[in-house]
């Protein structure tokens, strides 16, 4: 079974659409990779597969191999130069090495229906049984390399895809060949508004009834980072996710604001730049030299993400998730 190569599996869930599950999945994956872990991302949102676009690999296609599909690589395991240095400024890199050493990143690969569709704008009009069969095929026929973590980005709600996913996962991860506690649990995503909280509560009840451990709640879109000044404005309020987590007795992982620089990074591949003094979640955003034209697009996505204001925030979120997983074995 391909899942035997995976040490830990995490689901990213929400009872409501449009809360940013794919954005959270992407940043969890990038952060885990920056911490040296080998990571895979499986996108089972069959009617809205957005993971290929988030990672900037939507033009890629999966390859067939004996026994299944080979996932699309985002980047291989490698060493990134110290922050603030470039591949062409070796003297600066050497000077930084003692105080700001290179970052060893783990490999990252993805699988999504978006890689299989003939046209990325094609509508997927499938009945439940075909969706169920596709989800099971993704779980049994993808030839993942050895992974520390497999993140599964799911559609909203508690639909056929979720039931098929859990049935297949529970069967696959309970066998004697599966690593202990392979199905680590779920990260649940919400936004601060009451309408979102009411829907996401259903997802928490779904986890409770199906026996899926909730690793924590992330409150997304909790604020807006102005690209022209250092202010973070709470346009959708704040705190609803934390109250919900406390009500259900599950960990609250943190609040994540909307960062236009992250949007530009995903959409255009441009390295994030912030006005001096920008503070996000109590942390000062890194000030980097602004580059023009193609120079601002150079480098891997994971390298450019290091300059995003959300990166330090996700360092803390991922640290809490990993600690929670380790406590359960």
From TrEMBL:
Q: Which keywords does this chain's UniProt record carry? A: 4Fe-4S, ATP-binding, Cytoplasm, Hydrolase, Iron, Iron-sulfur, Metal-binding, Nucleotide-binding
Q: Does the keyword Transmembrane helix apply?
A: no
Polar residues composition-biased segments:
84-94
Q: Mind listing the GO biological process terms from this record?
A: iron-sulfur cluster assembly
* InterPro entries per UniProt: Mrp-like_CS, Mrp/NBP35_ATP-bd, NUBP2/Cfd1_eukaryotes, P-loop_NTPase, YlxH/NBP35
Q: Name the segments for region: Disordered.
A: 67-103
| Residues binding ATP | 15-22
Q: Mind telling me which HAMAP family this protein's record contains?
A: Mrp_NBP35, NUBP2
Task: State the PANTHER family in the record.
Answer: CYTOSOLIC FE-S CLUSTER ASSEMBLY FACTOR NUBP2, NUCLEOTIDE-BINDING PROTEIN NBP35 YEAST -RELATED
Name the chain's protein. P-loop containing nucleoside triphosphate hydrolase protein
Please report the organism this UniProt entry assigns to the protein: Periconia macrospinosa
């Amino acid at each position: 079974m391909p899942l035997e190569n995976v040490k830990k599996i995490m689901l990213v869930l929400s009872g409501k659409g449009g809360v940013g599950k794919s954005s959270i999945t992407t940043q969890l994956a990038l952060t885990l990779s920056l911490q040296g872990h080998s990571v895979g991302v499986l996108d089972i949102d069959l009617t809205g597969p957005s993971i290929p676009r988030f990672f900037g690999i939507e033009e890629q296609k999966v390859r067939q191999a004996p026994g299944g599909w080979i996932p699309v690589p985002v980047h291989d395991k490698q060493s990134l130069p110290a922050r603030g240095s470039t591949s062409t400024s070796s003297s600066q890199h050497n000077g930084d090495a003692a105080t700001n050493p290179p970052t060893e990143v783990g490999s990252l690969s993805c699988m999504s229906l978006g890689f299989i569709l003939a046209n990325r704008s094609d509508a997927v009009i499938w009945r439940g049984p075909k969706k169920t069969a596709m989800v099971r095929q993704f779980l049994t026929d993808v030839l993942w390399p050895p992974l520390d973590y497999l993140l599964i980005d799911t559609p909203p709600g508690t639909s056929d895809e979720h039931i098929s996913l859990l049935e297949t996962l529970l069967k696959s991860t309970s066998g004697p060949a599966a690593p202990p506690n392979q199905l680590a649990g779920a990260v649940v995503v919400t936004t601060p508004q009451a309408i979102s909280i009411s829907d996401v509560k259903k997802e928490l009840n779904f986890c409770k009834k199906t026996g899926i451990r909730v690793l924590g709640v992330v409150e997304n879109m909790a604020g807006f980072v102005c690209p022209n000044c250092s202010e973070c404005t709470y346009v959708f309020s704040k705190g609803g996710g934390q109250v919900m987590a406390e009500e259900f007795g599950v960990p609250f992982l943190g609040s994540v604001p909307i960062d236009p620089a992250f949007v530009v990074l995903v959409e255009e591949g441009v390295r994030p730049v912030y006005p001096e003094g920008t503070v996000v979640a109590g942390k000062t955003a890194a000030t980097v030299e602004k580059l023009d034209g193609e120079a601002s697009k150079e480098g891997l996505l994971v390298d450019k993400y290091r300059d995003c204001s959300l990166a330090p925030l996700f360092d803390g979120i991922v640290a809490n998730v990993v600690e929670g997983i380790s406590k359960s074995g």
